[in-house]
Each structure stands twice: as structure tokens, then as C-alpha cells.
Write a structure and sequence with these properties.
The chain is α+β, with helices and mostly antiparallel strands. Strands 1-9-10-11-12-20-17-16-15 form a nine-stranded antiparallel sheet. A five-stranded antiparallel sheet has the order 8-7-13-19-18, with no helix packed on it. The chain has a four-stranded antiparallel sheet with strand order 2-3-4-6, with no helix packed on it. α5 packs across α6 and α6 packs antiparallel against α7.
Length: about 700
């Protein structure tokens, strides 16, 4: 039984597709930057190594025998692993394959390209890559979803082109590792600004390699795309990688296997903590656990100039590079607290010192705020600090004074922030859709989810204060929670399993959304009547669950026609929602329903780390039984990967094993675990709680780890 995955364990299923099929282009990272791997056999885009960005600029499009490869109509098969993407295609008399990696330790992408002559005659095959760049170096935070790009000038070099912005502060050096014909495009730069899809991307030039192939013979060459803030830096990176492209490919595999091993190993040198290993006979549970771990590790960013030293981005490879969203980070809260608590602590200090009611995230380039306020922020910050404290036992954080006040005072403020948002009634009014789910027009104002979260905030902070000896402060917050919870429960619509959103005029608008189901279930399940809990589970089964994924909004909800965005609408779900829905099922007393769902849900872990949204099977046909990732094109604008993947780690540790390390108690409460119903022999090994390493067994027994 494998306890630690390697790159093969996490490989995506091969996917063959034609030009512009409904396939989300995958991403690669080496923690210094990211790149998008496009449909074409060699094309890459969004090659971004902060502080150098290139927007979504596409380069290295492939021509074979003088013809654009994509125009042949041949399907191209993509095979993703954490370390690489292998692409392959068959043309008349030719087999072509490429392996693309982000070179470890370098601000560079490398592609190893091989061509095999499957015909019965010798031939010379010209392979041309058209090169473009949009290298930019923005000193300010990247405040738009797409990273900055700039017009570049191109200059010829030996088997390469060197691109630079006007100021000479951002460089992109691209070329091959063998003798080649290189030429500039000869096309005059376009006047003024232009948009991708309208004016296109300016071509700097192209590079052509001629491969002499006997029948049955294979020949190769390598392409390298390196960036830097100076010509010397970009050129040096290019030359180091181009000197051994096959070595860069092998190095990427070794690099990623080291990261995965370190992530589950106490005392490793890559992370400030580690995740416990999961010993189980349930292939589905193991797959989801590893999926969640990969999807968190994937977003580690260690680039030079990162204001936090290390951060964890939220999306990649298309949108919001260098931004960490408070909401998404909180959905992987337990994972961060266990895997890398030191960067988590730095991120928390930074956010606590800021005004969390004015932005949704932070730029790792500047430390400055990004975006508008999200209503979830008080709940998210309380959850983050609570999980950090209870798993690390670093209660000294409460005495620190980011923002010139002790952290315990910030906690109290977050727990009471809802009071300033009350309208005419007892609940907080969270405003319009831009502060909530963005694409559900009826989910506005007094929503059940965040008002239930306010009850949880009050009780959680009360528990922290009680553990610190502030019994009066704890009692006051607990009393507030008890007074508030009935008003939240009053939003429930009896007999339906779902809640209403109360509008400023008192109207109660029914909303059949999973976010209410998940947050209410995971925060105040014990306060609900037994019949309400049963009806909520029935609603989930009847209207939200699919075989392999989840509908965020019931298709029976009138608002299902409002938006095609699959992260929060009827046609799909944001990646944390299935995990949190399963956590809610356990809390509502229906673990058997969650357990029954796992095999189908685990099939959706077959396309790399969790996407920002996956389609339901009714909306788009699945990929080998797994819910298909949604693409970045309009109208979906969905990224290929999202950091909230850590919610699946929390599902295993907190819900199935019932792990609840309470502050003020030396015991580890596992009384609410249900893993024995799935696998009576399961063990969570090497869980760190403070300075103690423990094994948690399916029967709830906790022993010191060997």
C-alpha cells in the first residue's frame, strides 16, 4: 500500500482533442513561475515568472512541412503529470511527440520535441516554431485578472530570438538547442492596442529546424523559453537549460517526486511542516486525499521579490497570478496549518495588519490589496487563525500586534463585525452579488450561510478566549451566538431542505444553493431540528448531487438561467464545494451518503489538480467518467487549477477521522469520526498537533507515532 504518491500516481488521464474543443489547457509550475500548455503540439502561453509577466501571449506555435500543425485536423493527445505535459499527434508518415516542463530552479520553460518517420522513404522534415513575446515588468501589484503584458521588440541571435520591452526591464529569450534558421517576421508592428482574437498577437519571428529522417528513425531537438529582468539574466537561463533539455525533463521529474515525498515527511527540508499519510483500503478516499494535497502544494510560490518570502497563489495558469485570495486560502486552512505553517503565519500577520473589509486578496509582489471586499472575509480569517492555533498550538500569536492590536482583539472584532451590517432585523445584510457568489443573482443580502458562519465565529472565538482564561469575554460571545442562531434557522423553508435569502424589504427569496447547505451544515448542524437536517440531506441528494460531481445551484431554482458560470451555477461547481458538501453530510448525521458518493467523486480527480470549476455531467460529457474541467474562454472564464483543493484534506482529517484538536485541552477529540463505516482498518499516520506526532485509528484511538 503506497502512502506517499509520486508523479505517476497523480498523472491525469490522457485526453485527445481537436482544435478548440471544450478542453481547459493545463498548467505547469516550478514554484518560481507558471506556464500554460496549449492545444498545439508545442505552443505555450502565459509564461510568467514574477516580476516578469506576459499576459496570455502565445508562442511556439508549430508548423510541420510548412503547414500549421493545428490545420491538419489531427487530434492532439495531452498527458499531464505534475512535472510535465506530454503531447503527441500523428500526421501522414510522421509521429510527433513533445514533453514540456518548467525547468527546476530556472525562470524557463523547456520542450523536448521528437519526430519519427513512419513511412518507407527517407525524408527531411522542417519543423518551424513561430515566436512571440509580451514581456512586461510592472512595479505595482497586478490588479487585473490577466497579468500585464507589453509590446516587445525582437532581435536575432544564434538559434534564438531575444525579446524586450521598451524599458529593457523585461526579457524573453526563445530558441532551440541545435542549428536552425532564425528570422524576424518582417511584419510591421501593429498600430495602437489590439486584443487577442481581434488583432492577434504580433509575431517576432520564427525558428526552423530541418530533421533528416531515415525510415523508422527518430530525431529530436529542444525549445527553451527563458525570461529575466535583464538580457544577461534571461540569456544565461536560456543557455543553462538549452545545454541539456533532456536533462531538464529528467530533472523536473526528480524535483516533483522530491516535493511530493517532502510534503508527507516529518522534518523535511522543503516545507515547515508536513501532511499525515493516509493508510486505507479505500482507493477513492486515498485519491481524493492526494488530490487535495497536490492541489495545495501546486500553488507554492518562491520567486525572488516575493514580499512574504513564500506565498500560495490561488489560480493558475490564466488568471490572478501573484494574488492570494483570503476566501480560497481559508478553504485549505487545515492543509496550510499542517503542511507549511510558517508561511501561513506570515500570511495571517499580513492580512491581520490590513483592512480585510476592503479587498479580497493580496499581491505577493507588493503586499498591497487586490480587488473588492468579499463578504466571507470575517469567517475566513476566523477559520484561518483558529486552524493555525489548534494544529500548531502556537498561542503566542494571540499576543502579537499586527495592526497595532493583539490578535485576540482582531478575532473578537471579526466575530462581532456582522452587527454593523444589520438592517432592520437581527441578521447581517451582505449586499449584492459582487460581494457574494457573483453569478447567482438571487443570493443576496441576508443569506443563511454567512449568518450561520457568524454564529460559528462567535462560538469559536469564545472557545479561544476561554482557553486563554477570559471566561467573561467567552460567555458574552457565546450568549450572542445563542441569541443569533434562531434567527438564522428562521431562514429555513420547512419541507424543502433549503433556505431563503431575506431582502431589505422583508421578502424571502428561496435559494437552492450548495453554499447554504455546506456552511449551515458545517457550522450550526447541532442547532437544527432533526427534521430540518433530514430534509437538507434529501435536498442535496435530490437536487445537488451528480454521480461524479455537484450542481452548485439546483436546476429547479429560477436563477439557474441567470449565468453560465459553472463555479456557482447549475452546470458545475467550484472545487471545494463537493468536499464541503461531504463535510456537511457528515455533520448533519448522514456520513453514509457522503461515503456512497466517494467513488464517483474520485473519478473527477483524473485531470490534474482541481480546477476552478468542473462541469456537471449533464452540462458537458465527462472525461473518462470524471467531471470535465471548465475552460478559460468566455463565457466561462474559469482557470485550470485552484488552491482551495485543500478542502479534500480537511474532509479526510476533520470529517472522516473526526480530528478536532481543541485549544485548552491536551486530548485530541475524535468522537465525531466516521471513517470506520468506510474502512475499519484506516489509519492517519504522523499527524502533528503542536509538538506531538500521533497516529489516528479508525476506531478513534490516538497513539504516539512510531
Amino acid at each position: 500500500m503506497r502512502l506517499i504518491p509520486d508523479v505517476d500516481d497523480l498523472a491525469a488521464d490522457p485526453v485527445a482533442h481537436h482544435y478548440d474543443d471544450m478542453i481547459a489547457p493545463s498548467g505547469l509550475t516550478n514554484f518560481l513561475g507558471t506556464a500554460r500548455v496549449d492545444h498545439d503540439l508545442t505552443a505555450v502561453s502565459a509564461v510568467t515568472f514574477p516580476p516578469v509577466s506576459q499576459g496570455l501571449t502565445r508562442t511556439a506555435a508549430c508548423f510541420v512541412d510548412g503547414r500549421l500543425l493545428e490545420s491538419y485536423g489531427a487530434p492532439i493527445t495531452h498527458e499531464w503529470r505534475p512535472d510535465r505535459v506530454r503531447r503527441s499527434a500523428t500526421l501522414p508518415g510522421l509521429e510527433l511527440a513533445t514533453v514540456t516542463v518548467c525547468a527546476p530552479g530556472e525562470t524557463a520553460v523547456a520542450i523536448d520535441i521528437s519526430v519519427t518517420n513512419t513511412g518507407d522513404r527517407a525524408r527531411t522534415v522542417p519543423v518551424t516554431l513561430t515566436l512571440a513575446a509580451g514581456a512586461a515588468h510592472a512595479e505595482a501589484a497586478w490588479l487585473d485578472a490577466v497579468a500585464p503584458e507589453a509590446r516587445n521588440r525582437a532581435a536575432l541571435g544564434a538559434s534564438r530570438l531575444a525579446f524586450a520591452n521598451r524599458e529593457g526591464t523585461a526579457w524573453s529569450v526563445q530558441g532551440v538547442d541545435t542549428a536552425a534558421e532564425v528570422r524576424l517576421s518582417g511584419i510591421a508592428p501593429m498600430a495602437g492596442e489590439h486584443e487577442v482574437g481581434i488583432g492577434g498577437i504580433e509575431r517576432g519571428g520564427d525558428v526552423t529546424v530541418h530533421l533528416d529522417l531515415a525510415p523508422g528513425a527518430t530525431a529530436r531537438f529542444g525549445y527553451v523559453h527563458a525570461v529575466g529582468t535583464t538580457e544577461d539574466a534571461a540569456t544565461a537561463a536560456f543557455e543553462r537549460v538549452a545545454a541539456d533539455v533532456p536533462g531538464a525533463v529528467q530533472g523536473a521529474e526528480a524535483f516533483w517526486n522530491r516535493q511530493l515525498e517532502a510534503a508527507f515527511t516529518p522534518g523535511n527540508t522543503e516545507f515547515s511542516g508536513h501532511l499525515p499519510t493516509l493508510e486505507t483500503d479505500s482507493d477513492a478516499l486515498r485519491r481524493l486525499y492526494w488530490w487535495g494535497a497536490l492541489g495545495t502544494v501546486w500553488f507554492r510560490r518562491d520567486f525572488a521579490g516575493n514580499v512574504l518570502g513564500r506565498s500560495y497563489d490561488t489560480l493558475m495558469p490564466n488568471y490572478w497570478a501573484t494574488t492570494t485570495f483570503i476566501w480560497d486560502f481559508s478553504l485549505s486552512s487545515i492543509t496550510h496549518a499542517l503542511l507549511d505553517p510558517e508561511p501561513m503565519k506570515a500570511q495571517l500577520r499580513h492580512w491581520i495588519a490590513s483592512d480585510i473589509h476592503t479587498h479580497f486578496g493580496t499581491s505577493s509582489l507588493t503586499g498591497g490589496p487586490v480587488g473588492r471586499w468579499y463578504s466571507v472575509n470575517d469567517y475566513a480569517m476566523t477559520r484561518l487563525v483558529h486552524d493555525y492555533l489548534r494544529f500548531t498550538r502556537d498561542t503566542a500569536l494571540l499576543d502579537e500586534t499586527p495592526g497595532d492590536r493583539p490578535v485576540r482583539e482582531h478575532l473578537r472584532d471579526w466575530a462581532l463585525a456582522w452587527q454593523s451590517l444589520r438592517g432592520t432585523g437581527p441578521l447581517a445584510d451582505y449586499g449584492e452579488i459582487d460581494n457574494l457568489l457573483e453569478c447567482v443573482s438571487s443570493y443576496t443580502h441576508e443569506v443563511a450561510s454567512l449568518n450561520a458562519a457568524n454564529v460559528w465565529n462567535l462560538r469559536t472565538v469564545a472557545g479561544i478566549l476561554a482557553a486563554e482564561g477570559d471566561t467573561d469575554g467567552a460567555a458574552a460571545l457565546a450568549a450572542e451566538a445563542d441569541a443569533l442562531v434562531k434567527a438564522v434557522a428562521d431562514l429555513y423553508l420547512p419541507g424543502t431542505g433549503h433556505f431563503a435569502a431575506r431582502q431589505p424589504d422583508g421578502t424571502r427569496v428561496p435559494v437552492r444553493h450548495v453554499y447554504d447547505f455546506s456552511v449551515v451544515g458545517t457550522t450550526i448542524a447541532a442547532d437544527l431540528e432533526e427534521g430540518t437536517r433530514r430534509e437538507m440531506v434529501e435536498f442535496y441528494q435530490r437536487e445537488l448531487r451528480t454521480e461524479a460531481w455537484l450542481r452548485s445551484l439546483s436546476p429547479w431554482d429560477p436563477d439557474a438561467s441567470f449565468s453560465p458560470r459553472p463555479d456557482h451555477q447549475w452546470n458545475g461547481a467550484y472545487p471545494a464545494w463537493p468536499a464541503d458538501a461531504a463535510r456537511s453530510l457528515v455533520a448533519l448525521g448522514a456520513p453514509e451518503v457522503a461515503i456512497d458518493w466517494l467513488p464517483g467523486l474520485a473519478r473527477s480527480a483524473n485531470q490534474g489538480p482541481p480546477g476552478q470549476a468542473h462541469f456537471t455531467e449533464e452540462a458537458v460529457p465527462p472525461v473518462n467518467g470524471g467531471a470535465r474541467k471548465a475552460p478559460p474562454q468566455l463565457p466561462y472564464i474559469i482557470d485550470w487549477a485552484c488552491s482551495s483543493a485543500g478542502a479534500y484534506v480537511a474532509l479526510v482529517i476533520e470529517s472522516f477521522f473526526g480530528v478536532d484538536p481543541r485549544l485548552g485541552s491536551a486530548d485530541l477529540d475524535t468522537s465525531h469520526g466516521c471513517i470506520a463505516d468506510l474502512d475499519p482498518g484506516a489509519v492517519l499516520r504522523g499527524l502533528r498537533v503542536g509538538d506531538r506526532l500521533v497516529d489516528v485509528h479508525a476506531d478513534g484511538t490516538v497513539t504516539d507515532a512510531v
